[in-house]
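Entry type: protein chain
Record version: 2
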Amino acid sequence: MTEVSTHQALEDARNDTIQIWVNGTLKPRAEATVSVFDSGFMLGDGVWEGLRLYDGRWAFLEEHLDRLFEAAKAIDLDIGMDRAAVIDALEETRLANGMASDAHARLMVTRGVKTRPFQHPSLSQQGPTVVIIMEHSRPSIPRPLKLATVPHIRGLPMTQDPKLNSHSKLNCILACIAAEKAGADEALMLDINGFVNTTNACNFFIVRKGVVWTSTGDYCMNGITRQKVIDLCRANDIPVFERNYSLVDTYGADEAFLTGTFGAQTPVSEIDGRQIGTGEAGPMTLRLRALYKDLVAS
């Protein structure tokens, strides 16, 4: 089986010489480093956003910034920049790398360098660490994905709220490892009640008899691409429901696909060894992919 990931991209030699924005300074890739005392490295204490560049524009930039600042507020982290400054930093990095389209940015903010290697936030006294990694990135996913249901779940808000795009991703990484050991590309994760929820890296949809289903959104990252697909369905008279549903409903689906900033709409061929539909991208997936492409270009 060809190894596939949801973030698989064409190799691009230009990425060897990218400039990376680190706390206001552009640095060559080999020199772009942070301290071993950084709270992001030490504790996963930070938040991030992934953005796609299409024809000189960052897709849905305002929504991404809304989520970034909301997440920072939720964890009591002062980014130290306003929205305009963040946009300026993105633009500075884009221009420094000569990027016009087919680029991906990972914008990361941590609580910064700690005075001692312990947990308490008060030990981060130097201000936040802000990093922008920008790569030439054209998705290259050679086949629909195979999923495996794993025992790892997305939990309750009082543990680690799954709506936070936090640096702490160990739960999702463990899910990904379990899926890989089961011979799949990505993990299908359930919620606390046993209903189908999300994958370790993307939001998850199924199609049954022309109707699009996704989870309630209570226990998953409420992805921007996820919401755009829901909005596109409603704007184009495609029935769509955010609802609880089980693996039985999922195995019997006509189509399944993932949504995310990087891959947009990625078809799923198999779940737990059961073929979904024809095993290829179905007509609803292709229709939504075309509608989304038009939306990005508008």
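Comment: The CA atoms of residues 4 and 77 lie 35 Å apart.
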